[in-house]
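Summary for the funding panel

The consortium committed to producing paired sequence-structure records for every protein in the target list. Below we show the first two records in order, beginning with the earlier of the two.
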Amino acid sequence: MKQTGLYVHIPFCVQKCLYCDFPSFAGQLDKREQYVKALQKELMQKAAQCKDYEIKTIFFGGGTPTVLSAEQLQCLMDTIKQNYCITEDAEISIEANPGTLDFHMCQALHNMGFNRISMGLQAWQNCLLQTLGRIHTNAQFLDNFQNARKAGFKNINVDLVFALPNQTISDWLETLEQVTALQPEHISAYSLIIEEGTPFYDLYEKGVYQETDEQTDREMYHKTVAFLKEKGYHQYEISNFSKNGKQSRHNSLYWLDGIYIGFGLGAHSYWAEKRFHNPYDLDCYIQKANAGMDLAEDVEQIPIYEQYSEFMFLGLRMTHGVSKKRFLERFGKEMADIYGDELEKLKKEGLLEESNGFVKLTERGIDVSNYVFVAFLKDAEEIIKNI
């Protein structure tokens, strides 16, 4: 039986972080019950599309899914279990911001079937948390982390962000030291991206904050890789590190260019070689879902040359790289038939290397990964020339 993953979007937050550009918002918490009912209808409506698939990963993201009540989350989980074929060993994750995870909530999540929690700490220093617009302190994070452990969670991810305004290298190393002392199974460490349309973007435009220089950003990244390796974390993707066997299976589905289906406000899907997303307007989403209407917007049939490109630049995010055998099995063509010139050029520049049938980024290639990825963006005319 074929396998796939489900993404469930919960857009509500206690307070929206200043750097966040995801479809989420503070306020409108009075619409949570309406939203949950609409989401249940969408889950039931789309179940027929997945009748031939086993669900191997489920990911509740946001927003902050844990601003819903335990009863509301239970309703959603019950709807999924009743309408979808979930594998016995499925990874079932939920994102949670510290400050929303008391022991009773953690216990309820564990009892309803969640087996992985992703906690957004971002930084250890309370002054930096305030800068980011976070709702919690490091003490609250510690309390919530221990609540999750007591409730039985044996797979916890901690999200971290570096290259923050006014963050020093010693601040970042302290964050890594404090987090690894807790022995989470997984750590995600991202460089801050200043997205247009966010309060952070406006603050940088006004000169309130200065963007971290590239040299410091790269120094923080390289220290992260070395530090986490020493602490027993395996780097399996550019920004993700895990204990043995604890890689994020859901996110790996994205990086390996697998199919997935999304539910909820603004949720994206990649299904039947098409990409599309749900409405971004909350009232529009609720109205359409309740009416059983088609929610897909901006439906795009992915042409074969874009499938080639996505296979390459998504897969190259993984430290083991992209498999030449898998490329051949997927497309019926050798990787070199499509990208021979690009591969040779990037190897000569010391940005790619090849071993055991895999092509992967070198350490230097990771530092300029966007440059490498662009090399695989070819249009149909260029592709035809090579085949």
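The next record, for a separate protein in the list, is shown here:
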Amino acid sequence: NLILSAQRGLIYDKNHVLLTENISSTDLVFSPKTLPTRENETFLLEHLTEIMPFISPSDFREALERARKTQQDVLVAKAIDHETVLRLEQASSEIPGATLVSSLVRKYPYGESLAHVLGYTSPVSATEIESDSALIATDITGKQGVEKKYDTALRGQHGFTYTEVTASGKEKTDLGRKPPTPGQDLTLTLDISLQQFIYGLFSERDAKAKAKHEDPVQGSAVVLSPKTGEVLAMVSYPSFDPNTFSQPGKRSGAADTFENPLKPLFNRAVDGTYPSGSTIKPFLAAGALQEGIITERTTIYSTGAINVGPYRFADWKAGGHGITDVKKALAESVNTFFYI
């Protein structure tokens, strides 16, 4: 059987702007059915090490043993550069069991601004293959964000061609095919223009802080539609480039991401816990109005603080805001109105 890979589904914003791309690539796998015996594998390993010196002999041996043990194709290298692919093709008769396979890698054109929302993909792990029989060695899977949450739907289902072969491996009869089922496309509620604008505000403020030798900027911003509750933008700062995880050629940048003391992988918008601050005031106002505790005409006299026993709870404005109704309390963020 020859596997026909399924195209991974694409992700769009609410205006159908493309947020992800699939890039064709070539992988090298070890196919257990055509591998030489252990006694004769030295020839194979020597040629592969010469052609691909960036992979250690021990990694080649480990992949060989895993292919023999599992009797499944095992990924040796993903997204191989064009020159190396040509050399492998020329040496195909000298590297039995080492097979070139077409696949894809994910590209994230909006990089850091969307990293925490989309997450990223990377080559499937041995553990994932063991737990999911639908996965193959050249697959990619979602590791964070939307890519992980909707991974099964985005992946689709691989197809097959069925061919009868002779004992020597020569193709004899075409027995038909099952076409692949492409992964489902996803449309998010996000507006990428708004997302980029907000990320740009963080980035600009951070650049100014660095120029003044101030502490680096850290924070998050979430914009919701008041009518539907849809998430229109969700930014966590600092961020990271998801392409460093999805594209092997950029993998060297991943180490910097992990070692960054500001923890750019941490999604402050979703996983951070912070005091609510003044964002709670509209909810207190709505609750008080709904329960009849106040009306839109209820006023208090804001003097700058309230005292409860030995405790003093101050307003942000010294001297207070004077006579305040609920509209003024929301417009000027009057602490004492909501304390009362």
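Regarding this second record: The chain has a mean pLDDT of 91. DSSP finds 14 helices and 16 strands in the chain.
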